C-alpha cells in the first residue's frame, strides 16, 4: 500500500516520482497562538477584567500545554499570569469586602 502520491514526469511518462509532503504536526500553529493569547490575556488581566481574563488565560495555557505547543515558556507564563489575576482579585476583594475593586 502506498501512502504518498505518485506523479509522472512530463519528459518521461513512464518514470514516476514520489511527491512526499513533509510531515507537519496538525494544529501546532493553533497551539502556539493559544500560548501567546494566554500570555497576553494574563498580562492584560492584571490591569482590567481579571475575573474574566484570568480563567480564560488559564484555560488557553492548559490546552496549549496539553496539545504540546512549541512555545512552552509563553504558555507557562500565561498560566502563571492567569493564576496571578485571580490572586490579585481575591486580595483586593478581601481588602475592600466587595466583589469588585478599584484603585
Protein described:
The structure is a single chain. α1 runs antiparallel to α2, α1 runs parallel beside α3 (72-96) and α2 runs antiparallel to α3. This protein is mostly helical and 103 residues long. It is rod-shaped and about 80 Å long. It has helices at residues 28-45, 50-67, 72-96; strands at residues 6-8, 16-18. Helix content is 59%, strand content 6%. The mean pLDDT is 80.
Brief account:
With about 100 residues, this protein is mostly helical. Helices cover about 60% and strands about 5% of the residues. It has a two-stranded antiparallel ribbon.
Order of helices and strands: EEHHH
Compute the separation of the termini in Å. Answer: 68 Å
Oligomeric state as shown: single chain
Mean pLDDT across the residues is: 80
Q: Number of helical segments?
A: 3
**Number of E-state strands:** 2
Coarse morphology:
rod-shaped
User: What proportion of the residues is helical, as a percent range?
Assistant: 55-70%
Fraction in beta strands: 5-15%
Task: Give me the secondary-structure category.
Answer: mainly alpha
Largest sheet: 2 strands, antiparallel
Order of the strands making up the biggest sheet: 1-2
Low-confidence stretches: none
Rg to the nearest angstrom?
23 Å
Layout: helices, strands, pairs:
Blueprint: E1 6-8, E2 16-18, H1 28-45, H2 50-67, H3 72-96
Antiparallel strand pairs: 1-2
Helix pairs in contact: 1-2, 1-3, 2-3
List keywords for this structure.
about 100 residues, about 5% strand, rod-shaped, mainly alpha, two-stranded antiparallel ribbon, about 60% helix, single chain
